[in-house]
Structure to design on (415 residues):
């Protein structure tokens, strides 16, 4: 009911974990979200609520699916947020988990509960339709939203995301390839929203880093045979390797020396095999991916040996998963990547709440020096997007290995 003060999270429901050991001097990988800068200046009244230093209690509403088909994922995110509460927050910070049911209608109802319970900030929700449903009410009541979506079309005007957007991933892997001397870049992408988002980032990143976009081809992700798209990408017809002539000797090389293939699973395996079949020699052409490539099973694909992709720095994330495991049990598969975002969002909200003059204003949330979280350094932009400092990993027969570490700040040369 509106005006009713929610009960704070009791010590009994907080995870019973052993706090992490103190970090050594000048740690290379931080384990909790902290400002990269020593402190925030100012302390002006926020456009999204009153100054937090003036409040006896700061309330963060966590909107995740705690029932329905995605309840397992939502519970892992809630657990991670509780872990951040235990490790980072002070006594003034109150976390209010609310069930979105994984639907737009459920998210809208949860947002109404957040307003009724006096939330100062909204953490989540996860899915794009949920964020669209929550945003109008949050803006009406001046609540900033730290969402977990990767759909940048729902961001802005007080709605931010901590999700791993394609832009940071593409920038990092293109920058690495340029540093290795690659100049002519091709993209082979799905003809869906994700593929088009990667294409937009690709077209911006390549020329910005001194390369040339020579090919952009799309394929139907539902098609059983992807050969035609790969023939177009590799100029197979012009090189004498067109349909019906696949076994001919090519009259020349493929028109690129680096190719980005942002897909996963069996489609990625088929595409990589076809690209090599149509004369893209992995010894000469760099095969590039996105976070979708972060799958140890790809080490068994010969065409992808030596391929590189961006990824969060491993050490701090592994430490987070170990602490989570001691409290709640092991995180399954890629759920850990989503749960860590909920941890960072909660830790960020808690850190800003305990700043002496802190607030959740756009100026505080978009501090240009960023924050250090369990998935590396990140920062939020005024348009609601996020930028992340990522490592580069290489696929090898013995598993992925890190070949370029993630920068510890956004001013590191070579980022």
């Amino acid at each position: 009911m509106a005006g009713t003060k929610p009960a704070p999270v009791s010590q009994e429901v907080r995870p019973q974990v052993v706090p992490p050991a103190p970090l050594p001097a000048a740690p290379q990988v931080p384990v909790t979200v902290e400002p990269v800068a020593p402190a925030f200046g100012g302390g002006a009244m926020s456009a999204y609520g009153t100054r937090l230093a003036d409040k006896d209690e700061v309330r963060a509403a966590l909107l995740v699916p705690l029932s329905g088909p995605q309840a397992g994922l939502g519970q892992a995110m809630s657990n991670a947020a509780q872990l951040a509460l235990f490790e980072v927050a002070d006594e003034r910070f109150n976390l209010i988990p609310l069930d979105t049911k994984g639907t737009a209608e459920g998210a809208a109802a949860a947002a109404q509960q957040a307003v009724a319970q006096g939330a100062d900030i909204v953490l989540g929700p996860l899915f794009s339709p949920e964020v669209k449903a929550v945003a109008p009410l949050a803006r009406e009541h001046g609540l900033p939203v730290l969402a977990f979506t990767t759909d940048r079309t729902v961001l802005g005007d007080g709605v931010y995301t901590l999700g791993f957007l394609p832009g940071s991933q593409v920038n990092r892997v293109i920058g690495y390839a340029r540093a290795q001397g690659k100049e002519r870049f091709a993209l082979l992408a799905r003809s869906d929203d994700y593929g088009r988002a990667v294409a937009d980032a690709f077209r911006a990143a390549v020329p910005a880093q001194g390369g040339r976009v020579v090919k952009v081809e799309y394929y139907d992700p539902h098609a059983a045979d992807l050969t035609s798209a790969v023939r177009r990408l590799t100029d197979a017809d012009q090189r004498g390797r067109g349909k019906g002539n696949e076994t001919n000797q090519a009259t020349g090389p493929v028109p690129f020396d680096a190719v980005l293939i942002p897909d996963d699973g069996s489609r990625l395996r088929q595409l990589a095999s076809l690209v090599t079949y149509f004369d893209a020699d992995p010894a000469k052409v760099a095969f590039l991916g996105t976070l979708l490539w972060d799958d140890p099973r790809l080490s068994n694909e010969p065409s992808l040996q030596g391929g590189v992709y961006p990824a969060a720095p491993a050490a701090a994330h592994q430490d987070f998963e170990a602490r989570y495991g001691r409290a709640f049990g092991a995180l399954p598969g890629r759920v850990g990547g989503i749960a860590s975002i909920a941890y960072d969002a909660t830790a960020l909200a808690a850190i800003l709440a305990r700043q002496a003059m802190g607030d959740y204003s756009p100026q505080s949330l978009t501090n240009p020096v960023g924050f250090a979280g369990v998935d590396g350094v990140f920062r939020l932009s005024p348009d609601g997007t996020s930028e992340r400092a990522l490592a580069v990993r290489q696929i090898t027969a013995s598993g992925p290995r890190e070949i370029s570490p993630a920068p510890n700040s956004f001013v590191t040369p070579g980022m």
